[in-house]
Amino acid sequence: MSHVDGVLVDVRESFWRSALETMRFLTGKRVTWAELYKWKNKPGNNDDWSMVSNWATALGRPTSYEEARDAFQQFYWGRDGRPGRVRRERMLVTPKQVERWAKRFELDLFTGRTRKEFAYTFDRWPGAQHLRMVVTMDDVARRKPYPDGLLKILAITLMML
User: Is the CA virtual torsion 59, 64, 69, 75 positive or negative?
Assistant: First the structure.
């Protein structure tokens, strides 16, 4: 297993809506869902913070990765007592389905989420107990699309043999 967002979790109203709101915050422009999908599909934009940085810069608002991340976080996690969009995440797969997979396969996961983002969504989800190993962006030097997380899972698996 290698993907969380869009495979295990519906992120349209969390990550993707946060990206749209961040773009408006940074650029003052209302961007569309169609534009978001176009930007998500461009190479190098798997990470939403990179996408926002690249997109805002292309719209004439030079934006660093760190600036995009910090602006994005206020919409995703919330600010000033307002709840963030993270609360709108919904699981796409049932715990029962994951349990069935776990009976047939070893389930490991590499995600582009931070450990905090992963924990918020998965700590209370019963299906997570069937994941043997989880590697987040915090656990590797190079983020997706680099295969470092998958290689880490493979190395640990081989050591266990």
Answer: negative
**Cα–Cα dist 160/59, whole Å:** 49
pTM above 0.85, yes or no: yes
Cβ distance 48 to 17 under 8 Å?
no
Asked if 13 and 86 touch (Cβ cutoff 8 Å), the reply is no
Question: What are the residue ranges of helices labelled H in the chain?
Answer: 17-27, 33-40, 48-58, 65-76, 95-104, 115-122, 148-160
Q: Beta strands 108-110 and 133-135: pairing type?
A: parallel
Cis status, amide bond into 145, omega within 30 of 0: yes
Token pair 């029962």 in the structure block, residue? 96
In this structure, the number of other CB atoms found within 10 A of the CB of residue 36 comes to 20
pLDDT tens, residue by residue, 68-119: 999 999 999 999 999 999 999 999 999 999 999 999 999 999 998 999 999 9
Helix, strand, or coil here: 2?
coil
